[in-house]
Specification:
Strand content: 5-15%
Structural class: alpha/beta
Helix content: 40-55%
Order of helices and strands: HEHEHEHEHEHEEHEHEHHEEHHHH
Largest sheet: 8 strands, parallel
Number of strands: 11
Distance between the termini: 21 Å
Bound molecules: flavin mononucleotide
Radius of gyration: 20 Å
Length: 342
Amino acid sequence: MLNIPAEAEFQALQARGAAFLGTELAIMGGAMSWVSERHLVSAISNAGGFGVIACGAMPPALLEKEIAATQALTSKPFGVNLITMHPDLDALIQICLAAKIGHIVLAGGIPPGPAVRAVKDGGAKLIAFAPALVLAKRFVKSGVDALVIEGSEAGGHIGPVSLTVLAQEILPYIKDVPIFVAGGLGRGEAILGYLEMGASGAQLGTRFAASTESIAHPNFKNAFLRANARDAIPSIQLDDRFPVIPVRGLVNAGTKKFLAHQAEVVQKFQSGELDKTAAQLSIEHFWAGALRRAVIDGDVENGSVMAGQSVGMVTAIQSVPEILAELKAQAVAALVSRAARP
Ligand SMILES: Cc1cc2nc3c(=O)[nH]c(=O)nc-3n(C[C@H](O)[C@H](O)[C@H](O)COP(=O)(O)O)c2cc1C
């Protein structure tokens, strides 16, 4: 039964985020390379959330096609996530602006000044990832319109700090722009908690990757269904001379082979067979194409099965509208039971 006061309280808590995104719910579908394409993005936006296309390594012409195909499937707002080190970043921004994309997310590093100006001058809203309070303040000064704070619980490339800590460090001090929390979120009660701390909304990835509308291979979704939180671990670095980019994903044969590969490379470096640059490159190349292999080809043993610790809360393949309705219902139910407490 609809509980009017609890419903209104929830709406009030998420109003700023929803108004910023132009949506019914202040929930973003975090961009996921190979997964966040036209079908999932439009499904999230059509269900009242905010879908975000993952541009990843796509060339400009391909992004242009993906945006047009997504616009054919939804008339609701959605965003595009661009990686700052993409060699064609400027062209990708222009593609988004020409297609009247209202929100551009710049991920994978500090947004470069010219990119910030191009997005703003083009009339789109700019969203950036803030991994620490000092950077959050700097981004706001430079004109960023909203921030995502993503904890290390998240799937994919991660920073070192959990959302529990980032939220406490950042939410009380940044009020000028809306902040969306991400990483390890699987239930509405947790989202409600962060809204009450001052967040304007949330971003989820893992739960949407396992949705009906996600084009991820059935093997990928089934791996999510089987996994517990503890199975989603960050990539392990064997030797501090050879850094490994921290990426959270499910343990499999590939993650074990990666350790053996690093050991072999370090040994070749020590014997003089490889110089430092060649050794580092060999480590970096190990995962090339591995996400695609898992998501599209379904090779969940050797591919990279990126997933957040929230994977333990994936207990069924649900449709996107079901997931969003469930998250909201959990948040509202928490408000109802609080009001009922003596
Ligand atoms: C399979 C997968 C691929 C991802 N790829 C990207 C990406 O290309 N760009 C990005 O900014 N974040 C990426 N992420 C992070 C998500 O956008 C989101 O912030 C994260 O999944 C939130 O944590 P959760 O998985 O616990 O919900 C990826 C996450 C997953 C699970």
